[in-house]
Design brief:
By secondary structure, the protein is mainly alpha-helical. 79% of the residues lie in helices and 0% in strands. The chain is built from two helices and no strands. Helix 1 runs antiparallel to helix 2.
């Protein structure tokens, strides 16, 4: 769970730094800033998906498995 949250935070920080680069400099550096922004967005979305899966997982562990008698 901690790794998923750290991944999200690092992605958001990467997006913020890339956005600052996009605001401050121009020219060829815009491509580098945009690539960093996209990479940060991918990290942030991966962290959110991993966090949501890990939050739901404990409820699945407590669930009772179906037995053949349940279907008859």
């Amino acid at each position: 769970m901690a790794v998923a949250v750290i991944t999200f935070v690092v992605g958001v920080l990467g997006m913020a730094v890339s956005f600052l680069v996009l605001l401050i400099v121009g020219g060829v550096e815009i491509i580098a800033g945009a690539a960093g922004f996209v990479a940060g967005a991918v990290l942030a979305s991966g962290g959110l998906v991993a966090t949501s899966v890990l939050v739901v997982a404990p409820a699945r562990r407590e669930a009772k498995a179906h037995e053949p008698a349940d279907f008859m």
